[in-house]
Amino acid sequence: MKANGLPGGTGTNAHDSPTLPRHQPGRQATSRRRVPGVPGVPGTPRTPREAGETGARRQPGGGAFYSGLQAARLGLRTLVITRGRPDELGELLAPFAKELAIEILPAAQTTTFETHGAGTARRQRLRAWAGPIRPEDLAEVAPARTSILHLAPVAQETPQRWPCAADFVGLTAQGLVRHWEMPGGEIERRPIDRARVPAPLDAVVISAGERSSCEPLLDDVPVTAITAGEGPTTVLLAGRADESIAPRPVDGAHDDLGAGDVFAAAFFIALHHGMSPLEAAGRGNAAAAVRIGGRGPQAVGDLAAIERRLRA
Q: Residues 6 or more apart from 52 whose CB is under 8 A from it?
């Protein structure tokens, strides 16, 4: 769970950015974004264990972490609420403590994925699961209100109800279509359980590979973005024809971990600030391109880097 613009947070409010439209009169001056997640778990920062030629390495990941970091680097004050082992997550997230406010709900273990490959060839096993985030767990750590609420489950952990009012609610649905057999089961996709999805939603981001699993959800959401790696991003608008925008190739692209999450963060923020869905998708594509142009979380771009990519 991630919230931007929280009182006491650090950074500049998104509405103060000279390149984004200001909030309309009557809206809150602060911009808050909240995302569930644990390194390795949707809704909590996730801890993927990536296998490579030099052996396994452990690093933070997950929708809440990457999208929260992107929001913070776009100038929004951001809170990530996650579940896992506080000692383990505290160590993994310590390098980003000055950028993000983080609340860790204690658990016996941290959600951990073993990841092989990249893009459509990526395969994952769930090695550990921190368990569900329940509404009562959030009572003392969640803000009463936030401008943007981003639900970012990675492994069926987010609740349907949230004790938080929001001006804009976005969902990255990957964690709600994942299924596994414990322990150590390989991740498979299953049709989304509509009863697990909070309502109402303002926008959803999914990958092309998740579309068939999410079909029951798409007709009910005003705006859906479907990413396709190097292929065009499709924007579905309720009651209107589909539109698409193709990302430009990235020279010297590196790992793509978190690319879809930074897309979602930039996309939701742009929509919340009044951009058209296609313009917002273009901004999301630019944010993802900046991310995969480098390695790891440090490659997540700030506003200036995304603007340069848009002008290139």
A: none
